Amino acid sequence: MYNYKIIPTRKKTFQLLQNSLADRDNSKSLEVLEIGIGGGANLEYYPDNCNLTVVDKNKFFEPYFKKNAKNYPHINYKRTVIQCAENMTEIQDNSMDIVVTSYFQCSCYDPQAVVKEILRVLKPGGKYVCMEHVGFPKNTIGLYIQKMVYPIWFLYSNGCTPHRDIAKVIKKAGFSDVICKEYDFGHWMTYIVKPHLIALATK
Length: 203
Fold this sequence. Notes:
By secondary structure, the protein is of the alpha/beta class. It is 29% helix and 28% strand. It has a seven-stranded mixed beta sheet with strand order 3-2-1-4-5-7-6.
C-alpha cells in the first residue's frame, strides 16, 4: 500500500532528473548507482540506457529485485555490492553519472558520511537524486512529537529516524547546485512521516 501511495512522488522525483538531462545524448549509457534499492520500485522511472550498480549492506533484497528488474529492458543490471553506504570502497571515485536513494537516508547510520561517499563516486556534473521523509521545521509541535516518539519508532520501523534534516545535510555537502522541494505528504500518511523531500543535487 505504501509503495502505491508514493507513486506520484516517485514520478515527480524522476521527472526532475529527466528535466536536468534534457540535453543528454541517449546513445551514451548512464552509469547509475542506487543505494538500498529494495525490490526496485524506482526502476520504471529510470532514464533509458542505464548501467545499474546496486549497493546494500545485505543480500536479502536480491531475489525480489532481480525478478522485478527483468521487466525493464532499458536497464542493464551490472552488479550488487554488499557494503555499507557510509564506506563504499568497491565503487571508484568519479565513476557514476547518477546516484539514487529513496527512503534510505532516514534509516542509514550516518547521513553525512553517505552523502560524502555519494559526492566521491559521482562524476563531475553527476546527479544525486533523493526522495525521503524528513523532520518537521524547527520549533514546531510536529518536530517535538517526532523526537518524543523516536525511541519507540526506531525500534518498530527498522531503525528509522523521523526527524532528520536531510535537506540541510545535502546543502552543506559541497554540491555545485542543489534543488530541494519539501512538502506535506497528505492526510493519509502517518503524522510522524508526513513531511517529505525531493532533492536533486549536482556535483
